[in-house]
Q: What sequence folds into this?
């Protein structure tokens, strides 16, 4: 079975902190994605990556950056956390092209 | 930019009913369309994947159809059960992956 693992289920951080959310997949997938999910707004794409060291902005990249140094790991970085970044963050991966996407269990981040 | 819409936003049915969830998208140049289920506070579980060349996929009581030219997909759930209560999301894959806002389904015993 494909496994996508996010490093934390719940995280509480202070305003202004630098926050790292980690995602690891074990199926050699090329594509990896970061979304945030908020009530009434659905899943919004923050960044995605289709290969090592490659990244593309999604719909809401402001305040975030990403890192993909190894194929299996895709990190989301909040440079200076703010309260409006309190959300559920979901990571996904897939093979390039016509394949199924798999999701991690999500990280609920609260910024206080 | 691909826009994905799901109707209805919420649905409540008695146990045993057959039901249809709708998903529409604006750009027909897609690789595939995937239906997910999400339970409260949890991640997404994949239900069905339909490739762009396919018309439908079935898994148990679930049947998903795809009409790429009209930008529509439906998820049909037969003989609904209380355990089917969840939010159902469709995602359209056309290089990136875009989601609808979901349909929150409640099946009452």
A:
């Amino acid at each position: 079975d494909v496994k996508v693992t996010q490093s934390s289920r719940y995280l509480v951080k202070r305003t202004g902190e630098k926050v790292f959310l980690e995602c690891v997949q074990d199926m050699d997938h090329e594509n990896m994605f970061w979304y945030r999910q908020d009530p009434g707004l659905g899943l919004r794409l923050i960044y995605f990556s289709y290969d090592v060291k490659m990244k593309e902005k999604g719909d809401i990249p402001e305040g975030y950056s990403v890192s993909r140094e190894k194929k299996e790991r895709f990190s989301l970085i909040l440079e200076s956390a703010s309260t409006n970044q309190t959300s559920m963050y979901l990571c996904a991966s897939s093979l390039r092209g016509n394949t199924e996407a798999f999701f991690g269990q999500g990280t609920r981040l609260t910024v206080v | 930019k691909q826009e994905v819409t799901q109707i209805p936003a919420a649905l409540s049915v008695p146990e045993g009913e057959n039901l249809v969830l709708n998903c529409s998208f604006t750009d027909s140049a897609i690789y595939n369309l995937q239906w997910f289920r999400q339970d409260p506070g949890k991640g997404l579980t994949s239900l069905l994947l339909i490739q762009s060349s396919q018309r439908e996929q079935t898994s148990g009581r679930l049947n998903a159809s795809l009409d790429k030219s009209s930008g529509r997909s439906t998820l049909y759930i037969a003989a609904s059960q209380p355990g089917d209560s969840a939010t159902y999301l469709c995602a359209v894959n056309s290089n990136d992956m875009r989601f609808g806002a979901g349909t929150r389904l409640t099946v009452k015993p």
Observations:
- The mean pLDDT of chain A is 93.
- The radius of gyration of chain A is 13 Å.
- The CA atoms of residues 66 and 73 of chain A lie 10 Å apart.
- Chain A touches chain B at residues 33, 35, 40-43, 45, 48, 56, 58-59, 90, 92, 94, 97-106, 108 (CB under 8 Å).
